[in-house]
Design a protein that fits this description.
Length: 186
């Protein structure tokens, strides 16, 4: 439901389980409203034209680019941002494994990647490496080279795997394929 006020429209949104009403210009994107009106800056500004994936949020569990979404169309939809991943003070397993494996360096791409990975694991608890790569095809990371990100998602999947899961699953051994001179210390 929306109510018009001069130059702005009152928009109702549900974000991370919480109801909000915000007066905003109808042309404002979801990315702008989250950051500027709802004080949820975890969702990052990147290209703003749908090419980098850093602004990704979940809408009804599906990854959506918030820079291309209009809040006025999202009343009654469930929006999840990175601020909604931790539950009861506990980090989501993906947040833990990304930190543990050093899969976030500058961290700018990380919120978008976490949400895409969450949507993937919710749909496919044991994704193959190629499924992970495909799911993250729209998320650019300029720092990590992606390997640590893929490993972090795989480790989270192992730890989250329901009754067959292994909460004690450990980080993978360093890539065997690394040339000896890259791992040797003098
Ligand atoms: S900021 Fe939305 S895709 Fe780049
Ligand atoms: S960690 Fe820096 S862009 Fe991905």
């Amino acid at each position: 439901m929306t109510t018009k006020t001069p130059n702005k429209t009152l928009i109702r949104l549900k974000v991370n389980g919480q109801d909000y009403q915000v007066a905003a210009a109808v042309s404002k994107t979801l990315l702008e409203v989250l950051r500027e009106d709802l004080n949820l800056p975890g969702t990052k500004h990147g290209c703003e034209v749908g090419e980098c994936g850093t602004c990704c949020v979940l809408i009804d569990g599906q990854p959506v680019l918030s820079c291309l979404s209009l809040p006025i169309e999202l009343a009654d939809r469930e929006i999840t941002t990175v601020e909604g991943l931790a539950q009861n003070g506990e980090l989501h397993p993906l947040q833990e494994t990304m930190a543990e494996l050093g899969a976030a360096q500058c961290g700018y791409c990380t919120p978008g990647i976490l949400l895409v990975a969450k949507a993937l694991l919710d749909e496919d608890p044991t994704p193959s490496r190629s499924s992970i790569r495909e799911a993250l095809g729209g998320n650019l990371c300029r720092c990590t080279g992606y390997l640590k990100i893929y490993e972090a998602i795989e480790l989270a999947a192992q730890r989250m795997g329901g009754e067959g899961g292994d909460k004690e699953a450990k980080r993978p051994e360093p890539e065997q394929s690394l040339a000896p001179e890259l791992v040797q210390r003098n």
